[in-house]
Design brief:
By secondary structure, the protein is of the alpha+beta class. The protein folds into 2 domains: 5-43, no CATH class; 47-188, Nucleoside Triphosphate Pyrophosphohydrolase (Alpha-Beta Complex). It is built from 4 helices and 10 strands; from the N terminus they run βββββαββαβββαα. Strands 4, 5, 6, 7, 8, 9 and 10 form a 7-stranded mixed β-sheet that branches. Strands 1-2-3 form a 3-stranded antiparallel β-sheet, with no helix packed on it.
């Protein structure tokens, strides 16, 4: 625990989709002065994401789906190209990403490798994202994927060369941070 921080009040502002809180806290700064600070914090739980790669074909699996927050912030179509990902439910991050991979892509994988963890937007969101890589091949495809109707998911799944996906980053076609990090990890570690 940080002895320079004391939470004095916590108020729930919204709890419809996830939980938005207002936190008032006392912080002793580097000059020794104690200040009262107020911040809004969005708690959506932790998540997991995976880059599926095929070392033989040098391809990866990506998804495309509508993301309302990006639509509200200069993404004219609202469509985002991403790696498979999701919120960790009552399970380990590894089991979560294996489940999400099946739901979103239709690929049933059994082995994943954790490469790192990251906070997605530490100034406002509590989420810690667990990032993985995993191999896939055509035999692992058991159904179409596309997400769950019960979660209103409408996910397009496609296979693309890692080199082409890297170019898409340069062209601004891929702007999702977790996807960029995992593609760059794959390149730096010569996964394909």
């Amino acid at each position: 625990m940080n002895n320079n921080i004391e939470i004095t009040k916590e108020t729930i502002l919204s709890n419809e989709w996830y939980c938005l809180k207002k936190i008032i806290f006392q912080q002793k700064n580097s000059k020794g002065i104690t200040e009262t600070i107020s911040r809004e914090v969005y708690d959506r739980g932790n998540g997991a994401a995976i880059l599926l790669y095929n070392p033989e074909t040098k391809n990866i699996i990506l998804t495309r789906q509508f993301r309302m927050p990006t639509y509200l912030n200069e993404n004219e179509s609202g469509m985002m190209i991403e790696v498979p990902a999701g919120i960790i439910e009552d399970e380990s991050p590894e089991k979560s990403i294996i489940r999400e991979t099946d739901e979103e892509t239709g690929y049933q994988i059994s082995e994943v490798k954790k490469v790192f963890e990251t906070y997605t937007s530490p100034g406002a969101v509590t989420e810690k994202l667990h990032l993985y890589v995993g191999k896939f091949n055509a035999q692992m495809k058991t159904h179409q994927g596309g997400g769950l109707d019960s979660e209103h998911e409408d996910i397009e799944v496609f296979e693309v060369a890692l080199s082409e996906a890297s170019e898409w980053i340069k062209q601004g076609k891929i702007t999702d941070a977790k996807t960029i990090m995992l593609i760059q990890y794959a390149q730096l570690n010569a996964l394909v």
